[in-house]
Each structure stands twice: as C-alpha cells, then as structure tokens.
Amino acid sequence: xxxVRARGFSVSIDGFGAGPDQSLEHPLGKGxxxxxxxxxxxxxxxxxxxxxxxxxxxxxxxxMNGFGAFILGRNMFGPAGDDWGGPDWKGWWxxxxxxxxxxxxxxxxxxxxxxMEGGTTFHFVTGGIEAALDxxxxxxxxxxxxxxxxVSTVRQYLLAGAIxxxxxxxxxxxxxxxxxxxxxxxxxxxxxxxxxxxxTELATHIVLTR
Length: 210
What we know:
Pfam families: RibD_C (PF01872)
CATH topology: Dihydrofolate Reductase, subunit A
Protein name: Deaminase reductase
GO biological process, one term: riboflavin biosynthetic process
Strand order of the largest sheet: 5-6-4-3-7-1-8-11-10
Shape: globular
Number of strands: 11
Radius of gyration: 16 Å
Distance between the termini: 17 Å
Largest sheet: 9 strands, mixed
Domain Bacterial bifunctional deaminase-reductase C-terminal: 9-190
GO molecular function, one term: 5-amino-6-(5-phosphoribosylamino)uracil reductase activity
C-alpha cells in the first residue's frame, strides 16, 4: 500500500491556505493567487494549462506525479454553493483535468461520477473522509494517494493522523484573513517533524513527516 501525501500545498507566512471570500471569481479567495506565485512559472504548471516552457522545479514536478488517486474538498471541484457552478460544471480545469487518475470529491451533495479526458474520473463521496480514503486506497493500489486540498480537507486528514507526508510551500505573503491551516492543531503531538527545508526566491519548501 502506498502512502498518503499532501504535496505542493501553499500557505502564507501567517498560516493561511486560502484568502477570504472564495467564489467563482476568486477560487482561492481574495489574495489567494499570491500563494501560488512559486508554482505558476514552472514547467509543471504550464503543461497543466496547455502551455510550453517554464522553469524546472522538483517540488512542482512531484506535486502531481506518481499518484494513484486524489482526494479533494468540495470547493476544489467547484465554486461554493449547492448548484456545482451550474448544470454543465465539470470542475475548474476543463475537459482534461491534471489529475489523470480517479479523484474523490468530499461533499454532502451526491452526484453521479463524471468521466473526463486523460484518465480522470470524479467520484463524489458523501460518507466522510474515512470512506473517501478507503476508496482512494483501494483504487491506488501500491501507488500513493494525494490529499489535494483545500484547507478544511487537509486539516481533517491531519487531525485523523492519516497524512504520512505534508509538503508546504510557504510563500512570502501575508493574507491576514482566510482559511488558517494549523489553527488549533498541535503537529508535534500528532507526531510530525520537519524532514526537509529548502528556501527559494518565491517560497520556502518544508516537508513534514510522521
């Protein structure tokens, strides 16, 4: 069985993983895109949006590759609200999402699976984080499962002790408000330690393991 990893998760220096007022116009909340400035110039991101070129970045490369399944929170699939962004909404990424593997969406609103191009199938799980992880592990086999966000989803899996490795990209940005990743979470008591720290111009990469 593979490991459960949260990789490439960007946070501000004051601990926010998304800005306030998330919406269709502001998927990451107001100011949220500033957290991703380290990722946007990379070859990995540019290939995700159908563009060539970009910088080489090992943290960006490992953020999406080698996973047998993904788990995402509800808002990582569509904008906040119960209408899924409208009757034709199939996610933020268009017809060919970058996951290329079965992707399990945590939600309270049931929906039939959606088969996309490139190997991605969105499955909507209403049974909670344990049910989603059981399904993802069964699907992934020997490959790893990625907890892809957002903040609430990562927090739930951290508190459940289910994440084996957490890679944070700490961006030199102050958001002040939004969704705080670690509020009320004692990482030390949960068994996490810092395994690697790599400073770069646009982010400091920190890998936590347990």
